[in-house]
Amino acid sequence: MLAGLAGEAEPYRRLLDDLARLLRAYYARRCPPGMDAEDLVQETLIAVHTRRATYDPGQPFTAWAYAIARYKLIDALRRGRAHLRAPLEAAEALFAPGGGPDGAEAAMAARDLDRVMARLNPRTRALIREVKIEGLSTREAAARHGMTETAVKVAVHRGLKALGGQYGRGGPDAD
Amino acid sequence: MRTEDLIRDLSADLPKVTPGAVAGRIALGLGLGGAASAALMLIWLGPRPDLGAALATPMFWMKLGYAAATGLIAALLLVRVARPAARPGALVAAAAAPFAVVALMAAVRLAQAPPDLRPALMMGHTAPHCPWRILAIGLPVLAGAVWAVRGLAPTRLGLAGLAAGLSAGGLGAAIYAIACDETSAPFLAIWYTAGIAALSVAGVAVSRLLRWR
């Protein structure tokens, strides 16, 4: 973690890998049925990353990381987030080149996509369009919006997750 | 997104973190809030007219010292509880120390005073206003503290709210002390404490705002 705070990517990546394994074990035992444990793992990794300035080098790293994991679990339970159930891959697939349905189905999918995208906040919508459809790099999108690259990644990740939730809950089948 | 991809993305974007970033953010929040509070005090009440002469009296410094010490100790506590897995430790006791000193001085002053003077020592001439003014003047500081802590990572929100309210109470009362011309220790122990306590309650009440994602 100390290397991570100093900006060294490789030891930091190994730390996050190890942490992801610990978190999977942690949430496997605590995550209630119907909630996606892997989503909580990812939420916690994002929080560990974006809030890494709050790590005090004088304290044990695991105690700090587990406190965040516990906070994220309580937060998820409090929200009772139904959309945690929707797999993020479903939303990712919508943007996969060549992977979508064709013909009339594609037109319908595009309409549905517009409809669910309309519920995101404008900046997140723009970021998803740029990064996932226009193919901009995270760096270019960050520069365009005056955001940090981390903020762009987190916004896109959360936007996709929200899309997955809406698509899963109120998608075409529900009409 | 697969977790491995997320980890790769996160570790690819890794600006250095400055040590002291947590304390810096809290100092900024309390400082900006304090500036707004000072402006509010100057516009609404104005400094006491005899401020120049008051600077030479120990009572002025005792009021300012009690409030500022409470606020600063609570700010240290806030720096601690804005982090995950925070252990507040001895700082909770330390936060009560200024009050203990002032309460003792008030008790001595009351014990030495003739009984018919005691009500005046306790009530001064602004008792009905004092706690409410401290509450109002401290609110911008509380807003600054909430802003700062939301950007950090408190995992015990109630405790963080209490620390935010107590620091806002102490600093707000210190700013109010510039406007207030009361001169007795019993008044300070009762009414300043009531104002500081009101902001502490407000801090706990708004601790939901400290949730972060």
What does this structure look like?
The complex is a heterodimer of chains A (175) and B (213). Chain A contains 9 helices and no strands. Chain A has helices spanning 2-5, 9-30, 37-50, 61-79, 88-95, 104-117, 122-133, 138-145, 149-170. Chain B has 213 residues and is an all-alpha fold. In chain B, helix 2 (21-44) packs antiparallel against helix 7, helix 4 packs parallel to helix 9 (185-205) and helix 8 (157-176) packs antiparallel against helix 9 (185-205). The longest helix of chain B has 24 residues, at 21-44. The two termini of chain B are 18 Å apart. The model of chain B has no long low-confidence stretch (mean pLDDT 94). The chains are: A mainly alpha (175), B mainly alpha (213).
Poorly predicted regions of chain A? 168-175
> What amount of the residues of chain B lies in strands?
under 5%
Q: Can you summarize the main beta sheet of chain B?
A: none
Query: How would you spell out the order of helices and strands of chain A?
Result: HHHHHHHHH
Précis, in short:
The complex is a heterodimer of chains A (about 180) and B (about 210). Chain A has nine helices and no strands. Chain A is mainly alpha-helical and about 180 residues long.
What descriptive keywords fit this protein?
heterodimer; A: 175 residues; mainly alpha; disordered C terminus; B: 213 residues
Question: Topology of this structure?
Answer:
The complex is a heterodimer of chains A (175) and B (213).
Chain A: H1 2-5, H2 9-30, H3 37-50, H4 61-79, H5 88-95, H6 104-117, H7 122-133, H8 138-145, H9 149-170
Chain B: H1 3-12, H2 21-44, H3 51-54, H4 58-81, H5 91-112, H6 118-123, H7 130-150, H8 157-176, H9 185-205
